[in-house]
Amino acid sequence: MAALPENPEVQKWGCMKLSLCGGHERAAAEAEAPRLIAAAMKQHEQNGQIQDWGSQAFAAFCAGADPESCSRKDGAVAEGAVEVLVKAAVSKKASAKRQAIGALGSLFRGEDVGCMQRAARLVEARVPQLLEQALKDDESSRTVRKVFGALAELVQVVPEQLSPEMLELVERALAANAGYEEIQRLGERIQQAAPQRECSKDKPTYWSGHIGDEGWAACPVTGETLSALRTMFVVNHPAELQGSRCRQLPPEVRRPARPLRLAD
Looking at the chain, which terminus has fewer C-beta neighbours within 10 angstroms, N or C? Predict the structure, then answer.
């Protein structure tokens, strides 16, 4: 790869081989794999296969959460992994986009000192917004699984990045992929880690009312509460919408109509 950087076939097969480095990450690091992968993806941005295999190579190289794995993640970030993966994640090739999202998710994972620094770098690169857009664009199981995997790692480090809009997208994706056990498990993990948002008297200012004499306030709801509210508005018997239910009562219990009286 280092000898023929302009040859797309060499770079593609090189990234493909490096994507199989699981168990040999130390040797790959000694061979400067992150630099070679990043260089290949940067020089061949329009080659979907190189973007796909390069992303998979980064995911394999950055797997794990032990100190040695986290050190490799820092090395990959230093070589420009975040930048090339973000570009791949917005490419037109669906497979490259999914693999890049998966690799970005692996960079969030870890409990080392540098974990917050990597997370800050990823947030600065607008990765949370990228994940949100991916859920808006595609609810297929393959894409949702990669996005949920990245989100599940993100919420462990920067849960405040989960906006109400993101949580609503997560719920929608869960409903669209009800038959996929792994997606359901990841979705529950995301929802459980989301920060609890309490109602406030002072914000947002556009609410129509605040807690006061009326004893109520508007606040965002998600999860079981939102599901229960939606159920309340389901019409099971459309015929009931055609008129007042008073017509269904026996005549003796109906309130008699009062004649109109004109004022003197």
Answer: C
Q: Decide if 206 is inside a domain.
A: no
> Would 251 be classed as within a structural domain?
no
Q: Is residue 222 part of a domain?
A: no
- Percent of residues, the chain, with pLDDT higher than 90: 36
Task: Name the domain count of the chain.
Answer: 1
pTM of the model: 0.68
CATH number of the domain enclosing 67: 1.25.10.10
pLDDT bin (cut points 50, 70, 90) of residue 253 is very low
Question: What's the CA gap between 61 and 109, in Å, rounded?
Answer: 13
